[in-house]
Write a structure and sequence with these properties.
This protein is mostly helical and 229 residues long. The chain is 83% helix and 0% strand. Helix 3 runs antiparallel to helix 4. The chain is globular, with a radius of gyration of 18 Å. The termini are far apart.
Length: 229
């Protein structure tokens, strides 16, 4: 059991540490990041219940419905809800890159809890495959969500547009990911380039968020300098 817990938790913590350490200014409080991670983990229970009800009631009658409604919309909406209603206005969210830290945290909390449940059911031999696909994809959906949340909070214009993007883009990418996985016979040949694209997009958002943070902190410094001059 200890081996399963270790294998289930390690990928999520490794990815979260990577994105956390990319924050080049004041790092987010560990307690706040952990709280967001825990919120994400707790989301597994209501989401699994709703998915069970949808399946039992026969709502999911096609692969498309299963991918985009049961998995993508439910999971990304709940993660977005936590991010927007508990983090967005919080005092610790004070630069654009912070959105990526918290977005990755809530997503990896969910992915880690889900990963443990799957490994308990299927066995630790599936740990590598789950680390490479579900856990890393959730991390990247969270990074992209957090990027747009950060852009929405710190942009002078189009705030509503960026907030809408923070839900819609991860929802779309997650739906495509699940549709490839559950409906295509030779899914591995499409999933491999899709994951490369997802990593490219996620790391591009990391780079852009860091640049936005540099600009934001420079503006804050100039403002404080002006006020004290």
């Amino acid at each position: 059991m200890l081996g399963i817990l270790s294998a289930g938790i390690a990928p999520g913590l490794a990815l979260l540490s990577y994105f956390y350490l990319k924050d080049q200014y004041e790092s987010e409080p560990i307690s706040m990041v952990f709280k967001t991670f825990l919120f994400g983990a707790l989301l597994v229970f209501p989401i699994m219940f709703i998915q069970y009800v949808l399946e039992t009631e026969g709502v999911l009658q096609s692969s498309l419905m299963d991918a985009f409604l049961s998995s993508s919309l439910l999971e990304e909406f709940f993660k977005w809800f936590i991010l927007f209603y508990t983090i967005y206005q919080h005092i610790t969210f004070d630069e654009p890159y912070d959105g990526i830290v918290y977005g990755a945290s809530v997503s990896l909390g969910f992915a880690t809890a889900e990963n443990i449940f799957y490994l308990v059911a299927l066995g630790v031999e599936h740990a590598l495959g789950r680390a490479l696909l579900p856990v890393s994809s959730h991390a990247l959906f969270g990074v992209i969500m957090g990027y747009y949340i950060g852009k929405g909070k710190f942009s002078a214009t189009s705030t509503k547009k960026w907030i809408a993007f923070s839900l819609f883009i991860p929802f779309l990418l997650h739906g495509i990911y699940d549709y490839i996985l559950i409906s295509l016979k030779h899914w591995i040949f499409i999933m491999f380039p899709f994951m490369i694209f997802l990593w490219w997009l996620g790391l591009r958002k990391v780079k852009k968020a860091r640049a936005h943070s540099v600009s934001h902190m420079d503006n804050q410094f100039d403002l404080q300098k002006t006020l004290h001059s």
